[in-house]
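Protocol step 6 of 9: fold each sequence in the batch and record its structure tokens directly after the sequence line. For illustration, a two-sequence batch is reproduced in full.

Sequence one:
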Amino acid sequence: MVTPFTADGALDIDGAQRLAAHLVDAGNDGLVVNGTTGESPTTSDAEKTDLVRAIVDAVGDRAHVVAGVGTNDTRHSIELAHAAQQAGAHGLLTVTPYYNKPPQSGLLRHFTAIADATDLPVMLYDIPGRSGVPINTDTIVRLAEHPRIVANKDAKGDLGRASWAIARSGLAWYSGDDMLNLPLLSVGACGFVSVVGHVVAPELRAMLDAYIAGDVHKATEIHQKLLPVFTGMFRTQGVITTKAALDLQGLPAGPLRLPLVGLTAEETAQLKIDLAAGGVQL
């Protein structure tokens, strides 16, 4: 979920609550806050806590609220995990430490320390394109032995490695790459942590339900219908296009915080074309 800001760049708590309720009404059964799409690198610890508390208040027991607490500093991540638990989060999302490129033994200790810090279930977030380091399959299997590490968000883009990791770890597996939502279901994933779910949640829900029901043909039809959306929402950084799409629909989003910048007029025109081609009403 994006983090709405006011016109002057402050946290828009009211807008965040309205957006959260809208997303749940649209078919999302969980919301990840303070993730990459939530501009977590540019929100303060206090803002992160305030946002978790507000979203939990807004959706109650209608959806699981998962708080992003991953940083490249284990101590800081543990502090964020404690704050998220106190704010009422139902689970934690922990991204691979970025920039400092730890070895696999460091990843094992990092994720284990976060999982040990609270009573909340933990979803790993494997995105080597951003973090610089993949979580190797052997490491995932070892982490899965921890009673509170229960899921993985896969943005590795490797169906072969995903297949082995799912089979060996038994973790609940979520697609973190919208273009691969359906392919990952075919090798054992159970759902999506989606960016395009901001604008096509009913379609994603229908695709997931069709696949689970055994109607692969219908799921494939929906996947192919959404290809323009999958492509259009990632022509540039996903937060930028998501906030633009929400603005076009009259939903809370607001400006971005630097270093992110808004779409140009030409990019906005292309986004409208892409969304319309995928059946999104603006």
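Sequence two, same batch, same settings:
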Amino acid sequence: MITALKPIELGGIRIGDGYPKICVPIVARSEEDVFANVQRIVDEAARCEAEYEGKRLDIIEFRADYFDMVTNKTVLIETLKKVKEIIGERLLLFTYRSEEEGGNLRHDRAENMIDDIYEWVIEKEAADIIDIELLQGNYYVVRTASKAHDKGIKVIMSYHNFEETPHDDEIIEKLRNMEVLGADILKIAAMPKNEFDVRRLMELNEYAITGKLKGYPITHPVVTMSMGDIGKVSRISGKKTGSAITFAYVGEESAPGQLNLEEMFKELQLSD
């Protein structure tokens, strides 16, 4: 079991403590579908938690790039508040994934309103964690992360590559930039071309949080995953690699290679 140098604690949940936390996304278009989807997730989580003792769904992700009313401040905030009521003590992660990084582009206006959308969520403290894409630019990333921290909201800084798994040096540079720019959790997801790419990313996660990287140690929790079928092993190996969060699905997957929630519980139990 590999622990980050600085695990973060939020709502009694420790991220980076050596046990990968499970996150399931909400992917729904309408308010009605959002509430139905999140209730289905909570019900399935309760069933799985009863069957697989010691395992828990800790985080639910609101994928705002799927939500038709994302540019309506009142509707968005009220929807998030209702979601928080339904999920109870579980953490709520807010994500607007850009088209360039695999998002579900349905809103011509939303791509130009990212600043406003995140401002609304932060101002109203409508999520426990927000996801900020590293490639949005240093000024935007630092400013948004700082505002989130002022409100007690944690920040996942992320980079997604659906074409390839970058070279080691590029991955390490991105992780270090995320720390410098104010991330609480560092996330990289990449598409492997072969099993070597999968092993390489898994090993980099381990090296990053055990101080084996030369020059500049990574101190915050790191999340890495190889996408697609050959990358599935990376999603269930967090205790070995130190990857702090893994993503599963209930209903509709939000990224290639995700396991459904029951499969995730089963695989993590087998790895104990």
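Proceed to step 7 once all outputs are recorded. Observation for sequence two: The mean pLDDT is 93.
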